[in-house]
Amino acid sequence: KNEVEQSPQNLTAQEGEFITINCSYSVGISALHWLQQHPGGGIVSLFMLSSGKKKHGRLIATINIQEKHSSLHITASHPRDSAVYICAVSSTGNQFYFGTGTSLTVIP
Amino acid sequence: EPEVTQTPSHQVTQMGQEVILRCVPISNHLYFYWYRQILGQKVEFLVSFYNNEISEKSEIFDDQFSVERPDGSNFTLKIRSTKLEDSAMYFCASSEGGLAGWETQYFGPGTRLLVL
User: Fold this and answer.
1) Which of A65, A108, B18, B66 is the most exposed place for a label (fewest CB within 10 A)?
2) Which residue of A has its CA nearest to B55?
3) How open is the CA angle B99-A44-A1, to the nearest 5 degrees?
4) Across all residues in chain B, what is the average pLDDT?
């Protein structure tokens, strides 16, 4: 079973486009994390949120606790945004569950 | 900027051998984690560690696995008798403190383990 589901699995966008990646989860959570995994494998934490909305530069993350859903938005996408974006949750049982990731390619 | 480091970057071993993967977390961080990612699959949680003991572990983290903080700076993952299915990228992470899961985690670059 997948505690965390992401969509889409793959996404190709033209430079400048507004991008949305969705995440749904089925467990009770203490926090939700958005991560970026670069082609070489390295993982960077983008956001950690437990309610509402956070913004960092061109990235915006939102979460709806009641609907168990989060979105990651990228405004004015750029080729350097090309990466795999991973949604992960810290469950109330102190476990961590990861989505399978969304592979984003931004074409110049 | 402080970062989590991992050694080695790549390790090849024979099935049945013991391996130790090493991590140096960020110095003022109190929570440490190990994750693994089998090629082409999602990241999986193995274990979290706080105050010199395991805080949580997943079903994957069976008796073949152990973690240790031997000297106050290193954080190690030992696999006692490696199996082919242990081949994966292993990531270490650390967070500043507070409750596990509530803090931003900083990931190391990973160790790619190949079991032959």
Assistant:
1) A108
2) A94
3) 70
4) 92
Q: What is the pLDDT of residue B51?
A: 87
Residue of A nearest to B33 (CA): A96
Enumerate the residues of chain A whose CB falls inside 8 A of the CB of residue B107: 35, 42-45
Instruction: Specify whether the backbone of A30 is left (phi greater than 0), alpha (psi in -120 to 50) or beta.
Output: alpha
Q: What is the pLDDT of residues B57-73, one digit of tens each?
A: 999 999 999 999 988 78
Residue contact B55–A94, C-beta within 8 A: yes
Could you give the C-alpha distances from B66 to A49, B19, B62, in angstroms and in order? 30, 11, 8
Which of B107, B112, B114 would you mutate first to test chain A, the one with the most A CBs within 10 A?
Answer: B107
Set of chain A residues whose Cβ sits within 8 Å of the Cβ of B37: 41
Instruction: List B46's β-bridge partners, or say none.
Output: none
Residue B100 in this model has a pLDDT that exceeds 70: no
- By CA distance, what is A2's nearest residue in B? B42
Strand partners, A97: A89
Model confidence at B41: pLDDT above 60: yes
- Please tell me the predicted confidence (pLDDT) of residue A16: 97
Q: Which residue has the tokens 């606790």?
A: A65
pLDDT of residue B102: 66
Separation of CA A62 from chain center: 10
Residue A93 has pLDDT above 80, yes or no: no
